[in-house]
Amino acid sequence: MRTLVLLALVGLGAQLVDGSLGMAYGVTSTTLLLAVGTNPAAASATVHLAEIGTTLASGLSHWRFGNVDWRVVLRIGVPGAVGAFVGATFLSWLATDVAAPVMALVLLTLGLYVLARFTFTGISSENLGKPLRKRFLAPLGLVGGFVDATGGGGWGPVGTPAILASGRLEPRKVIGSIDTSEFLVAIAASAGFLLGLGSAGINGAWALALLAGGLVAAPVAAWLVRILPPRVLGSAVGGLIVLTNVRTLLTLDVVDAEGAVRWGVYALVVAVWAGAVAYSVRAHLRTRRAGVPLVEGAADAEQGRVTGAVVSGRRDA
């Protein structure tokens, strides 16, 4: 019972992060499951089974609020499902002693990316309104789906920043479309794990606990994103992912780092992490004082829509 409560709290915390950033539910949940000694393939399988429910609820919510571009969902979601299925079967066939460092390296890479992305650039958007091409979305979906399954998460960290960086879709629709398309990825990954591991490889009770926590956190995350700057939260989460997976790598038998070396590395990671969060806070405060929109281009796009509506109204009159 104690384990289920802890897993529900993990699911709640991961959904708070994901709901605020449009990413990191799988990465956060899988990282914490690995930290308590869960088999890598079983951890990813359990998280993806829970994500079927959380992504469905998230997608429906985004759809009701008009945050979904269905062309993007299909163009990235279908290739993403293919990549996730391949990644899940690949991870299922790896031996545990091989899968553990592979997953830790993938998660560490994603953590470093999230940390650097939100610390130094935040979220920016330009050239809103230009169409996203299939030749861009299809490869992105394949890579994102494969990374998501093999790393236990990564669909959001791969897809959300890439589409935001293109500047062709409103940030709210980027997050809504990525979250909605992740439903297809979660189903495909779960099918791949069922094929590779069988039902014995998935802990249904753990998945339900993660799901329960995620469903409770979903409305809270919608409120939380209004008061916590995404840039600061992204730096904080990225640092947590890096620290946890550095710990995993240093405790592997093939590394077997001595105590003094291990603690020295931990201290260095924590120092960099603290510096990154402090930098993000200062950058956020400078942005607020300057009166610059948190997402560049969003305010201009909104102003353009308002101006267009006013002009149209005058013409109709």
Automatic annotation (TrEMBL):
Keywords: Cell membrane, Membrane, Transmembrane, Transmembrane helix. This is Probable membrane transporter protein. Its main location: membrane. The keyword DNA-binding does not apply. It is a multi-pass membrane protein. The chain crosses the membrane at residues 72-94, 100-120, 183-200, 206-225, 232-251, 263-281. It is found in: Cell membrane; Membrane. The lineage of its organism: Bacteria, Bacillati, Actinomycetota, Actinomycetes, Micrococcales. It comes from the Bacteria. The keyword Nucleotide-binding does not apply. Belongs to the 4-toluene sulfonate uptake permease (TSUP) (TC 2.A.102) family. It holds the Pfam family TauE. One of its GO terms (cellular component) is plasma membrane. It comes from Paraoerskovia marina.
